[in-house]
Write a structure and sequence with these properties.
49% of the residues lie in helices and 22% in strands. The chain is an alpha+beta fold. It has two domains: 4-82, Phosphorylase Kinase, domain 1; 87-211, Transferase(Phosphotransferase), domain 1. The strands form three sheets. The chain has a five-stranded antiparallel β-sheet, with helices on one face. Strand 8 and strand 9 (136-139) form a beta hairpin. The protein is globular.
């Protein structure tokens, strides 16, 4: 059976292999960038592949649902991962009741807190990078992930969720955001309020820069 392209990004392509060693798998492959020197390009793609795999592994160790990694090919800049059967959260919000959405976003908040508590920054914390699979929410695409305990970076992560809600799910933004924050507090404890406060400061700085 043929491998098919399911998503094309600026940095990497996602390919679906319906029969990788007898199982369905997703291949994330970082393509060659011809505008870079070949050796530099190879080094960058190799590093980013290893780094993303490491973040995924650390997230799973912290209890956050992430795809299993079946194979890592640093030289080929490819990660072979478990195919997650489910729906992107972005695509199902409009199909759920408010109560179901609030429960879902509370869970997303809890798992986001687990990430941050483990000193992990997602880097693109939006509903496009979360798959609801049964009772789990599986976090995907850690290409922009970092290892950090900085409140500033946690605040930026949180603000990505706020901006996504404001632009994509704005009709029910307030209850979903409050549900997310409630879940985040349960796993982050007192540190959660520091993150929310810093996120407010970051948004104010952004508005000031826009006015300039």
């Amino acid at each position: 059976m043929e491998v098919t392209l399911i998503a094309k990004g600026a940095e990497a392509d996602l390919l679906l292999d319906p029969d990788w060693n007898g199982r369905k798998a997703v291949l994330k492959r970082r393509g060659v960038k011809k505008y870079r020197h070949p050796q530099i390009d190879n080094d960058i793609r190799r590093y980013r592949t290893l780094h993303e795999a490491d973040i995924i592994h650390r997230a799973k160790e912290a209890g956050v649902p992430t795809p299993f990694i079946y194979q890592l090919d640093p030289d080929g800049a490819t990660i072979v991962m478990e195919y997650i059967d489910g729906d992107k959260v972005r695509d199902i919000v409009s199909k759920l009741s408010l109560a179901e959405n609030c429960a879902l976003f509370r869970l997303i908040g809890e798992e986001s807190g687990n990430l941050h508590r483990a000193a992990l920054i997602h880097g693109d914390l939006t509903t496009s990078n979360m798959i609801k699979s049964g009772n789990r929410v599986v976090f995907i695409d850690f290409g922009l992930g970092e290892i950090s305990k900085e409140v500033e970076k946690r605040g930026v992560d949180f603000n990505l969720m706020v901006r996504m809600l404001a632009s994509t799910h704005y009709t029910i933004m307030e209850p979903l955001l409050e549900s997310f924050k409630d879940g985040y507090r349960t796993t982050m404890g007192p540190e959660a309020e520091e993150v929310f406060k810093r996120a407010d400061e970051i948004r104010r700085r952004g508005r000031y820069i826009d006015k300039e």
